[in-house]
Design a protein that fits this description.
The structure holds 2 protein chains of 2 kinds. Chain A is an alpha+beta fold. Chain A has one domain (5-92). Chain A has helices at 47-58, 94-97; strands spanning 5-14, 26-30, 33-34, 70-73, 82-90. Chain A starts with a strand and ends with a helix. By secondary structure, chain B is of the alpha+beta class. Chain B has helices at 3-10, 55-69, 118-124, 129-147; strands at residues 15-26, 37-41, 44-45, 80-82, 85-89, 106-116. A 6-stranded antiparallel β-sheet of chain B has the order 3-2-1-6-5-4. The longest helix of chain B is centred in the last third of the chain and has 19 residues, at 129-147. Classes of the chains: A alpha+beta, B alpha+beta. Chain A binds chain B through residues 12-13, 15, 18, 44-45, 48-49, 51-52, 64-66, 68, 70-81, 83, and chain B through 55-56, 59-64, 75, 77-81, 86-94, 97, 99-103, 108.
Chain lengths: 99, 152
């Protein structure tokens, strides 16, 4: 199956002090590549968990609660937590979305 | 023997056993119930001392388990502590943070660390330290001969 989607991971909320992430930070992935020019932050503590969703989303398979974006949080308990939204972007729309 | 090898296998308190216990669940979890435990002796999960394994939570734990096993202060990794205990939460915000609904729940885990001696590690894993040291030395010498030739 061709991978027809980019995967965007966006920080939508920071619920407590976090020295790493701020609202609006983004990671853009053309699986398996991180598009560095469209990525402005990358937390190595959160990414192993986030990466588990990348393969499915890049193939168009969304997980989570139907009708709601996929929200996930970092596992830290003394910092944040940081809330991430994971979404797929059709590759043909990438130029309009990632500018 | 390299210092890190020496500490890993001979120091009394360098390596820790981790017991990860489901402490609180908002409001439900399909995998864990309160009190369920997962035991890790790096790099393995001790199945005989483990009630349940959630792959998604394992991904949450991956960045932390080696540091926790090797004695790094949990506070330096962004984890809340109470005395010798530390805490980590799974990645699902749906149960605890109502503005971010999901189809799952949120689990808070307590992390207990117990120092392991070499003899303790041998209870969990069969290995011959003398044979391993011999293999390590061969590998080190091969690498150094190829990559670290001293200049005349």
């Amino acid at each position: 199956m061709d991978k027809k989607f980019l995967v965007e991971i966006e920080v939508v909320d920071v619920l407590g002090p976090c020295p790493h992430c701020k609202k609006g930070d983004k990671i853009l992935i053309d699986e398996p590549n991180v598009i560095v020019s469209k990525t402005n932050n990358f937390c190595t503590r959160a990414f192993p968990m986030l990466s588990t969703f990348v393969m499915a989303f890049s193939h168009g398979i969304e997980t989570g609660l139907q009708g709601v974006p996929l929200f996930v949080k970092c596992p830290a308990t003394a910092e944040g937590p940081v809330i991430f939204k994971v979404s797929k972007i059709p590759k043909e729309r990438k130029n309009e979305r990632i500018r | 023997m390299k210092e890190s090898d020496k500490f890993t296998y001979e120091s009394e308190k360098f390596r820790y056993k981790l017991e990860i216990i489901a402490k609180k669940i908002w409001p439900m979890c399909p995998i864990y119930k309160e009190g369920d435990k997962m035991t890790i002796v790096e790099p393995g999960i001790v199945i005989q001392e483990t009630d349940a394994i959630c792959l998604s939570f394992l991904a949450d734990l991956i960045p932390y388990y080696r540091g926790l096993s090797r004695g790094i202060d949990p506070k330096e990794m962004g984890l809340k502590t109470e005395g010798d205990l530390s805490f980590i939460e799974c990645h699902d915000p749906g149960g605890k943070y109502s503005d971010y609904p999901t189809d799952g729940g949120t689990v808070l885990f307590e992390i207990r660390r117990t120092p392991l001696t070499l003899e303790d590690v041998k209870k969990y894993r069969k290995f011959d330290l003398k044979a391993m040291e011999k293999v390590w030395a061969q590998r080190r010498e091969r690498y150094q001969a190829k990559n670290m030739k001293s200049s005349p």
